[in-house]
């Protein structure tokens, strides 16, 4: 690792090689809109919202700041006409795909995007296909219960065969990372219901032996017991009743 | 959980499972070879049944999500049973300007199906492709890999008759 000096929006900044423009910008409180980025998982470059203009000498080009690694002498501009045009176009496309998403609506307002020129999708959910949920499920949880399936205009986030996924531990990480709130989790009685854009699954919650409360999905607890090599009765009591 | 799309899903026969296992062994059960493995499994079973993808996932120790994503990504893979004969009509630029659209319409009428679909009697599956590299002979209709060049809508009947 080596320290480099770069300029973002006229500010001279120090950073380490290997860091991306987006990371450095965030460390220095410079705002770049980004939907598919989360520190917990590897950068992926799906939403294209984080485009910035970089230049060195005479050339300037648009790059995805979540993927582009900083270099010595790099000059970055996050707010040029060109950058804003691309952001607006991307937002317009996202708005046509997910007209019901409040997050995208707010973004459109912020960037001054009106009615999209593209035909809005009907009866659509809020999924922008950023794959944050699937990456979190694979990279962080280690379950790989969901993925992006099909191709092109038919691409969707789903479980295999759009059916109940045996690999899902019902932990809810997908809902937690989703930038647009496309995944819903509802606990009622002894059941957790996860509603994804194309699949709904139900899971049993575990009941506390002492107080009787339903407090966490059985599959998630079994997963933790296995991962951490805990005794099988480790979670018989809920956190409140333990000790 | 109660979201199974195809309730009448095909159960793999013991012989099919054997074929899959043999295919996996041929590739040393190496997950990197997933695409080739799926191609071979499809060649043997005519399509990729749900249980076959599960066998492959277990056999390669790959998540089912990965196998399913790959199987649904490539147009060459089919998760539905296919007809005895595969009709591919070229919609590439050269064939297009020579009238492949009219031929496709004729095929759709004759077979009563749209591209991607299979006739009820499982005789034909219809697919479109974009350029099969024989532009000079276009428009091209391929049946089971055999090229029928300089096609016209009028010739469609005669070509289909050759395949039972
Ligand atoms: S459900 Fe959410 S996190 Fe998953 S791909 Fe869609 S928008 Fe991204
Ligand atoms: S945050 Fe960079 S492409 Fe989505
Ligand atoms: S366009 Fe049909 S063979 Fe090239």
| Name given to the CATH architecture of the largest domain in chain B | 3-Layer(aba) Sandwich
Uncertain runs of chain A are none
Could you give a short account of the major beta sheet of chain B? Answer: 4 strands, mixed
Strand order in the largest sheet of chain B: 2-1-3-4
User: How many individual β-strands of chain B?
Assistant: 4
What does this entry look like structurally?
- The complex is a heterodimer of chains A (243) and B (164).
- Chain A is an alpha+beta fold.
- Chain A has helices spanning 21-27, 81-97, 102-111, 132-141, 173-177, 218-228, and strands at 3-8, 11-16, 51-56, 59-64, 75-77, 147-149, 156-158, 184-188, 191-195, 200-207, 214-217.
- Chain A folds into 2 domains: 3-79, Ubiquitin-like (UB roll); 132-242, no CATH class.
- In chain A, helix 2 (81-97) runs antiparallel to helix 3 (102-111).
- In chain A, the strands form 3 sheets. Chain A has a 5-stranded mixed sheet, sandwiched between helices.
- Chain B has 164 residues and is an alpha+beta fold.
- Chain B has 2 domains: 14-73; 85-161, Glutaredoxin.
- Helix content of chain B is 42%, strand content 11%.
- Chain B has helices spanning 14-26, 34-45, 50-60, 64-73, 93-97, 100-111, 156-161, and strands spanning 85-90, 124-129, 141-143, 146-148.
- In chain B, helix 1 (14-26) packs across helix 3 (50-60) and helix 2 (34-45) packs antiparallel against helix 3.
- The radius of gyration of chain B is 18 Å and the shape is elongated.
- The termini of chain B are far apart.
- The interface between A and B is medium-sized, with 23 and 19 residues.
- The complex binds iron/sulfur cluster and FE2/S2 (inorganic) cluster (2 copies).
- One FE2/S2 (inorganic) cluster (FES) is lined by residues 34-37, 45-50, 64, 66 of chain A.
